[in-house]
Amino acid sequence: MQVTITAVGPDNRGLADPIVHYVTGAGANIYEIQMYDRDSEHLFAMMLRLDWPTEVEPVDVLRKRLDEIGRLKGLSIRTWARDEHQRPPRLAICTTYRPEISLALLRNIRDGRLKAQAAVMLGNREACRNVAEQFEVPWESIGDDNGKPDNDKFVEILDKYEVDYIILARYMQILPPRLCWEFAGGRIINLHHGLLPSFPGFRPYHDAYSHHMLTYGATAHFIVPELDAGNQIINQTAFTVLPGTPLNDIIRQGESDNEPTCLVEAVRRVVDREVELHFHRVVRTVRS
After folding, report:
1. Over the Cα atoms of the chain, what is R_g?
2. Which one, out of 23, 163, 220, 279, has a CA that is 20 to 30 A from the CA of 6?
3. pLDDT of the residue at 228
4. What's the rounded Cα separation, in Å, for the pair 192 and 7?
C-alpha cells in the first residue's frame, strides 16, 4: 500500500535516521524521499513516499510506531495512506470571500460527479459560512477580526476531521512552509485565478487586462513548500473575450464559470486517481 510520511520539527541531528531505518527494516520500498533544512528557520522537514507491506504490519500500527519516534525526537509525524479506509476521500474546502467555487464543489459531490466527502469547510472570513450551512457541512472559522488565519488551529481542524485533501477554493492566504510540509506529497490543491506561469500574484485578471490580453484563465495546481520547484499544474481552463470587453465583465465570467470548472475537474482527476504528485511533478497514475 502506498503510504506518505511527513515529519516536521526543530532542526537537529539524526532526525531522519530512525524513521528511515524503521520503515526499511520492516520491508518498505521507498519510492521518494525529500528533506528540507533551512538554517534561517531552524526547521527540519522530511517527506517519504513508500510501498508499505501491510501484510507485515497494518498502517495504524506503523502510525503508532512513528508517533513514538516523533515524541522521542520532537517531531510532528503524519502517516497517511489514501487506501487505508474503505471510504471516499475526505476534503477540507478552504475559503475567504468568493462562494462560487465551493458551491460548485459541493454540488458536484452531492450529484455524484465528485466521488469525495466534504468533511469540513473553513475560512479566514465568514463570507462562505452560509454555503456550508446550505449543504449541512461543518463550518470552522480560523481567522481573527482582520482575517489573519490561526495556522495552528488550521492544522488541528484538518486532523480533527481526518482530512485527506486540502482544497484551497479561492483561499486568499499564503500557507506557511511548515503547514505545506505537514501535508506534502500532493495533498493540497490550489485554485489560482489566472493562467500560470504568465500571470501569478493576487491580481491576475488586472495584470492580463493591462497587457491587452483577450484570453483569460485559471490554474489548479498542487501546493509544494518551495516556490518554482517544478510543474505542479493539474488543470488549466481558459476563455476568450471580444476586444473592448470591460474588465468587470471579464472578472465576472471568470469567477462565475471558468474558475469553478477548472478546480472541480482538477479535484476529480486527483480523487479518481488519474494523477499524483511525484518529485514535485504531476504524473499520470499507472494502474495495474
Report:
1. 20
2. 220
3. 46
4. 28
Q: DSSP E strands: which ranges in the chain?
A: 2-10, 29-38, 43-51, 76-80, 90-95, 117-123, 139-141, 165-168, 188-192, 215-222, 233-240, 275-278, 281-284
176-213: pLDDT as tens digits: 988 999 999 999 999 999 999 999 989 999 999 999 99
Distance CA 232, CA 171 (A): 18
Cβ pair 8, 45 in contact under 8 A: yes
Report the C-alpha gap between 95 and 171 in whole angstroms: 4
- Provide, rounded to the nearest whole percent, the portion of the chain with pLDDT above 70: 95
CA angle, corner 285, sides to 284 and 288, nearest 5?
140
Separation of alpha carbons 28 and 21, rounded Å: 10
In one-letter notation, the amino acid at residue 102 is S
| Helix (H), strand (E) at residue 66 | helix 59-73
Contact between 263 and 191 under an 8 Å Cβ cutoff? The reply is: yes
Angle at which helices 100-110 and 259-271 pack, to 10 degrees? 40
Q: Is 212 left (phi over 0), alpha (psi -120 to 50) or beta?
A: left
